[in-house]
Automatic annotation (TrEMBL):
Transmembrane domains' residue ranges: 96-116, 167-184, 219-239, 251-272, 284-304
Cross-referenced InterPro entries: SpoIIM-like
Protein name, as recorded: Stage II sporulation protein M
Pfam families documented for this protein: SpoIIM
């Protein structure tokens, strides 16, 4: 059968499967079997076509739906962070890369602007903050700002502010991603000028050992927030084979899952800032250990583990395809 005729005979059924997935396990199973049969046929006669790629994605979606609806002993709360969120990271790895690239570019712009314009740091960070930090440097305690107030109050205030910022960054993705990119620009310029300010004072290494105790997780989560907004915005701009509204709903849901899923990272970062960063004279080994642990966790959970999980899912899909033959 020619591919065009194969598509013509089955496209309406595929669209129904795509738009009206039932939550009933038996109906899901029947639809999944039908799709895998079509996929097996397409792989045999049109192995490199877009039709085969489309059916493979549709079959994977049904497999995940069945997996989610299957009764299991594992708590749903646990499987979200163990399986679902990492797979979303992998699915939208391009948006993660774009968010990181935007943020780093704006950081670099912030550093260069601060380097060549003496007024830029005050423009971005504010006169009050710069004056206070200059006073602290003169007193021999350049990071004294982290010692103000009680640890508990500082933790709560920072956590609330960071979560508000990340939800806003996600929500502004609805403006065709422009709002999210603007927020990435604001935060990137701030970080770049902020970090250069300490290097210009001869406190570069010390600032890294102190500020990045909490900054490693905080900034990483901020980049992930940017990715959540870009996912929603790009789903509106580039709906692909879906209707624009359907694409937006899918993108908004995936972005929201990321925004909710990274809240614990912000909470840990706020805890570190409120309770640990204030100990600016801690041994270098302790600072390095915290930095290395935080960095390793982000690389593993956002990049390595999702890739491993996706590979396992593909192997399982291959086994299902072979069985369906």
């Amino acid at each position: 059968m020619r591919e065009a005729l194969f598509i013509k005979q089955n496209s309406e059924r595929w669209k129904q499967y795509e738009l009206n997935k039932s939550k009933d396990p038996d109906e899901l199973a029947d639809s999944f079997i039908s799709i895998t049969d079509d996929l097996a046929y397409a792989k045999t006669f049109y192995p490199n076509s877009k039709t085969t790629q489309y059916l493979n994605g549709l079959a994977s979606g049904f497999h995940q739906s069945i997996y989610r609806n299957k009764k299991e002993k594992t708590n749903r709360f646990v499987t979200f962070w163990q399986t679902e969120l990492p797979l979303i990271f992998y699915k939208h790895r391009r948006q993660l890369l774009y968010s990181f690239a935007f943020f780093m570019a704006f950081c670099l712009i912030g550093m260069l602007s601060a380097m060549y314009d003496d007024t830029f740091v005050r423009l971005i960070l504010g006169n009050d903050y710069v004056n206070m930090t200059n006073d602290n440097i003169a007193k021999g305690d350049p990071f004294g700002v982290y010692k103000f107030g009680s640890s508990g109050w500082m933790f709560a205030a920072i956590a609330a502010n960071n979560i508000f910022v990340e939800l806003r960054m996600y929500a502004l993705g609805i403006l065709c991603s422009v709002g999210t990119v603007y927020n990435l620009m604001q935060n990137g310029l701030m970080l770049g000028s902020f970090q250069y300010y300490f290097f210009s004072k001869g406190l570069g290494l010390q600032s890294v050992l102190v500020i990045w105790i909490h900054g490693t997780l905080e900034i990483s989560a901020l980049v992930l927030s940017g990715a959540a907004g870009l996912i929603m915005g790009n789903s509106l701009l580039f709906p692909k084979t879906y209707k624009r509204l359907v694409s937006l709903k899918r993108g908004a849901l995936d972005g929201l899952k990321i925004a909710i899923g990274i809240v614990p990272i912000f909470l840990v970062a706020a805890f570190l800032e409120g309770y640990v960063t204030r100990h600016t004279e801690m041994p270098m080994a302790a600072s390095v250990a915290i930095l290395a642990t935080s960095f390793t966790f982000i690389i593993w959970y956002v990049l390595l583990y999702p890739a491993m999980l996706n590979r396992k899912l593909n192997l399982l899909q291959t086994d299902i395809d072979e069985t369906s033959f």
